Amino acid sequence: MNVQVILNEDVADLGRTGDVVKVRAGYARNYLLPRGLAIEANPRNLRVFEHQKRIAAARREAQKSESMKLKEKLDALVLTIGANAGEEGKLFGSVTNIDIEKALREKGFTVDRRKIMLVEPIKQLGEFTVPVKLLPEVEASLKITVVAAE
């Protein structure tokens, strides 16, 4: 006998979070339900789940619109960072994503340093373009100018 369940988490070979799937009653009763991987797909749970899904979609949409606004601002921004440099424009030390985050904070932007996709630290003077991954589908291009500090 098969029963319908709503998956709370991704389950290999079965489905993703939120999928309504039919499984054997024993599999649901002995594995999925006790481990909290799924809940029974009765009319009440389906209504609650649909409501939660709508709320999450609205939250994601609001987050995406905020990220798009921030992307436009970051794309237009040219961030200037001063660093100690020696001969031929080589830096003593380097400019890292932490330095970029600090400079952005001084300009009034709040961006987590883990979202600044700096492949390797900047080690010389010049202009650089650094991707900032605000959301998986929203990526800004931040222009950074590294100048010699006085």
Topology diagram in text:
Blueprint: E1 2-7, E2 20-24, H1 25-32, E3 38-40, H2 43-76, E4 78-83, E5 90-95, H3 97-106, E6 122-124, E7 126-135, E8 138-148
Parallel strand pairs: 4-8
Antiparallel strand pairs: 1-2, 1-3, 5-6, 7-8
Structural account:
The protein is α+β, with helices and mostly antiparallel strands and 150 residues long. The protein folds into two domains: 2-62, Ribosomal protein L9, N-terminal domain (Ribosomal Protein L9, domain 1); 66-148, Ribosomal Protein L9, domain 2 (Roll). It is 35% helix and 33% strand. It has three helices and eight strands. It has helices spanning 25-32, 43-76, 97-106; strands at residues 2-7, 20-24, 38-40, 78-83, 90-95, 122-124, 126-135, 138-148. A three-stranded antiparallel beta sheet has the order 2-1-3. Strands 4-8-7 form a three-stranded mixed beta sheet. The longest helix has 34 residues, at 43-76. 13% of the residues are buried. The model has no long low-confidence stretch (mean pLDDT 92).
What features would you highlight for this structure?
single chain; 150 residues; alpha+beta; Ribosomal Protein L9, domain 1; Ribosomal Protein L9, domain 2; 2 domains; 3-stranded antiparallel sheet; 3-stranded mixed sheet; 3 helices; 8 strands; 35% helix; elongated
Q: What is the CA-atom radius of gyration, in angstroms?
A: 24 Å
* CATH hierarchy class name of the largest domain: Alpha Beta
Total of helices: 3
Task: Tell me the number of strands.
Answer: 8
- Largest β sheet strand count, sense and barrel closure: 3 strands, antiparallel
Spell out the CATH superfamily of the largest domain.
Answer: Ribosomal protein L9, C-terminal domain
Average pLDDT rating: 92
Strand content: 25-35%
Indicate the overall shape.
elongated
Termini separation (Å)?
A: 77 Å
